[in-house]
Give the backbone structure.
Amino acid sequence: MLDPYRMVFVNVITSLFVLAGTIIYRYVYPKKKINLFILLLIISMLPIISIFRTGAYESGDFNIHIYRSMAFFDSLKEGNFMPSWAENLNATYGYPLFIFNYSLPYYILSFFHIIGFSFIGSLKIFLGLNLILSGVLMYAMTKELFKNELAAFTSAIFYVFAPYHLISTHFKITIGEILAFTLTPVIFIFLNRLLKIKKGRYINLLMTGFFLGLIALSHIFIAIVLVPIFLAYIIFHLKWGLKSLFYFASIFIIGSLISLYQWTPPLIYNKYLFIHLYPIDSAALYYPSISDLLYSPWRYGLLFQGPKGEISSLIGYAQLFIVLSMLLFLLKNKIPKIYKSGVVAWLALITVLVLVMIPFSKQLWISLPLISSAGVHRLLILVALCSSILAGYFVLINIKRKWLILAIVLFAVFTTILNWGQRRVMPQINDSSLEKNLPYSTSQGEAHFYANTRWVNPKHPWFSKTPSSHLEILNGKAQVEDLERASTEHKYMITAFSSLTVKENTLYFPGWSVINNEKPIDIKPDNNGVITFSLPKGDNKLTLSFDDIYLFKLSKTISIASMLIILFITLIYMVKNYLTFQRHK
């Protein structure tokens, strides 16, 4: 049996087993209430079974994130707590990948690797764990919002099985988006507590800002879009005033400080970057059409990835049913007054999100090139959030129609069953084979376009062949001895029999410096962007080292200090609450 059909067969069988088990339990123990949280966990495991097949995925960014994880982990091992330089990528010429790429997912993957899992295993655990946790956290958020377990359960199911969620997890393997899916409900948990509960208000304020910062470290585009949503959300609950302004400003400042080292590099390094000379045309980026959002063109609309790896931008059939139903209820005035304002707000938000995604809004994004370059289709993450919350409202309005609620839950789950895993994995690929290909991976597709430098050859911006040696003598004669090499420090002993022109096969970028016999010397990029410099005749004890430039180093310091301060305050608050509880026990 072909792997894709085997995967679907396993998914169908396990789903039917869970469904049959639930029905049997219901009839064997008719007086016992089904634990919806446990049922949520079981159902959320269905789409991750296929993740743990042996090997790497055929399509998506799976291997790309393995390569980057390896480079990130190697830098961590050397003591670079906040890595900037990826040495073994780009044919060992390296490039400043981690200055411009999100970092939080790679810390998590490195943690899994440290405790004993392979890099491939670590990524698979990351994917599966995030899918389950996203449902758990959405359940927690909506349970506080609705005070109803069935509504929370339904919202969580819609969130886990939102088409773009499964596309990100199984086809695109965009780990920043996946982590943003997980963290977004947490923000709304603390934000709701901030706005509705007086006790612990300031700790909830800190936590809202803290998790906004974490989302920015996972995917800066989602964090940026969340900022105006937070403002609208706060004003919706508190009306416009000084308190609203204070809450919003505090959340924004805290999130910005924590993620400072994530969003400042494009500003600090802009003039040194490839995209400064060759900017991305925002008008040429992908903007999903209405038909893209409504229907997937493969397998009668039930498959969300095409035969050549094309990706659907589907909102979801169950999600569309919920949105249209709530609009109909609203028009017929069938929404109870207690829920009406909430329904209107979330419907308004999902409408705005859809409008700013479609080609109609292209001119808006052209004026925001740094933001739009991330891809406006990623707003589907927030569309999934809105539709999931609306599904909870749908349950509250139809709470007596259990058959209808069961039907929409089953519809949300089973219309996605063809997308519960990559259609093909390659069992022959393991950590060792990927590690051997690490230097060549950048030219093969790993390349982070925004992290390249302005000095490279525009026709060949990435290196595909590893150099024969780390250091080359371009002019003159010398004897070269490699003394020591780490990702951000290269040491040589060079005995020059004449004046030399030297090329050290590392990509030039501000932060690299050369010390010769304890004195700094000038360096510059050649026509391919590689470090070159001159040396005098005689013995030259050479050290090339990379260190973040002052402004970026300062932003890292502020970020880590902000995190530690907030975590310390939170710890003090928790200890104080615990001691108070013990005294009154």
User: Anything to note?
Assistant: The longest helix spans residues 550-583.
